[in-house]
Specification:
This protein is α/β, with parallel strands linked by helices. The protein folds into two domains: 124 residues, Aspartate Aminotransferase, domain 1, CATH 3.90.1150.10; 200 residues, Type I PLP-dependent aspartate aminotransferase-like (Major domain) (Aspartate Aminotransferase, domain 2, 3-Layer(aba) Sandwich). 42% of the residues lie in helices and 17% in strands. The strands form three sheets. A seven-stranded mixed sheet has the order 4-10-9-8-7-5-6, sandwiched between helices. Helix 5 links the parallel strand 5 and strand 6. Helix 4 runs parallel beside helix 5. The protein binds pyridoxal-5'-phosphate. The site of pyridoxal-5'-phosphate has 14 residues, from helix 4.
Length: 389
């Protein structure tokens, strides 16, 4: 049965396998002795190689060792965790923050701790798997609204909201696969009109948007209006782990109820120290996010000028290629030309919306972006439908 499963996935162009990097350096990835420019990483600002993060992690390893060796509620909670939570709360302009071991663990734990079988969750259809899994785990009634469609969300709220005790609306602020922005102000207006709470996942916005780089909720002045602002340290922050910025009461409630927080060994001190250093670097080095977003505009606009339509309004630029087999072929051509640009296929994205998701990074040189754009335009001659959506 397992062999048949694998054979069928292979035939459909859906078989996944691991590729092992020799090492990574300044936006490049080295695999089996060959160098590729890495367009599949979320290290958007290049912070995973920043001297201040590395130094902070080394110092913490010397002082605390390599593991926290215990859950936060036993002996795994260090002053460093507390410092990170205070700095995160201040960064996100919320009363408190709680650190989680990963974005996946954060979403499944937070949603299932906050919502019950008597509640309803209204969630954007393009939400990350961790949001879907958290919702399913909660047992709440689950409504999915069409991607970024305020009209559809309102029609669901109108019909169903008053049948439930509590309701939670969930969206990402920058969508991980489409790179577009959620209409946060519109969603906030609806959550107020229909007496709901709101959770925003800023995994791909943290470090990039807003005056201080804390995210799109900061940029749009919505930090106070949104009850639960979640994000990760694993993407633009160049480190690992995740956070929820919220009220002090919610933090205390989660410390007592959130199973993915309680029943897991705390993140080790070197990771926490790198997270703290990342917040500092984000605030002090705004040129990184400015250059990144300028490059993303240049990349998207050049494709558009060449009649290749791309979605998004961020550093994530998806080129929709359609079916899986075609997407694999295009990815292979890009690899042969020296770009690490992997295919994204169902179930991560809807059927027939397979894509190459270009993740831009601060340390991509303009000349490399130009060469990649020329190559995409050339490849398009062999795949006329590419980028039509
Ligand atoms: C929107 C979103 N939320 C959560 C996560 C999970 O974060 P982590 O990789 O830290 O588990 C991801 C990761 O890809 C994501 O894209």
């Amino acid at each position: 049965m397992i062999k048949e499963f694998l054979a069928q996935k292979q035939k459909q162009g859906l078989l996944r396998f691991l590729r092992h990097a020799d090492y990574k350096k300044s936006g490049d990835i080295f695999i089996e002795g060959k160098k590729y420019i890495d367009f599949s990483s979320n290290d958007y600002l290049g912070l995973s190689q920043h001297a201040k993060l590395i130094q902070a992690a080394q110092d913490a390893a010397e002082k605390f060792g390599t593991s926290s060796s215990s859950s936060r509620l036993l002996s795994g909670s260090f002053k460093l965790h507390n410092e990170l939570e205070e700095k995160t709360a201040e960064f996100k302009k919320k009363e408190a923050a709680l650190v989680f071991n990963s974005g996946y663990q954060a979403n499944i734990g937070i949603i299932s701790a906050l919502c019950t079988k008597q509640d309803a969750i209204f969630c954007d259809k393009m939400s990350h798997a961790s949001i879907i899994d958290g919702t399913l785990l909660s047992g709440s009634k689950f409504f999915r609204f069409s991607h970024n469609d305020l009209g559809h969300l309102e029609s669901l709220l109108e019909k169903y909201r008053n049948k439930f005790n509590n309701a939670l609306i969930i969206t990402e602020s920058i969508f991980s696969m489409d790179g577009d922005k959620a209409p946060l102000k519109g969603i906030v207006a609806l959550k107020e009109k229909y007496n709901c709470r709101m959770l925003v996942d800023e995994a791909h916005a943290t470090g990039i948007f807003g005056k201080n780089g804390s995210g799109l909720t900061e940029e749009e002045g919505l930090s106070e209006k949104i009850e639960f602002i979640m994000g990760t340290f694993s993407k633009a922050m160049g480190s690992f782990g995740a956070y929820l910025a919220c009220s002090k009461d919610i933090k205390d409630y989660l410390i007592n109820t959130c199973r993915s927080f309680i029943y897991s060994t705390a993140l080790p001190a070197p990771v926490i120290a790198a997270d703290i250093a990342a917040i500092d670097v984000i605030k002090k080095e705004p040129h990184r996010r400015k250059t990144l977003l300028d490059n993303a505009d240049y990349f998207r606009n050049t494709l558009k000028k060449n009649q290749i339509s791309v979605k998004g309004a961020s550093q994530i630029i998806p080129l929709i290629t359609g079916d899986c087999v075609k997407t694999l072929e295009i990815s292979k051509m890009l690899m042969e030309a020296g770009y690490w640009a992997l295919p994204i296929r169902p179930p991560t994205v809807p059927k027939n919306e397979s894509r190459i998701r270009f993740s831009l990074a601060y340390n991509h040189a303009k000349k490399d972006l130009k060469r990649l754009l020329d190559d995409i335009i050339k490849i398009r001659c062999s795949y006329p439908g590419m980028g039509d959506r």
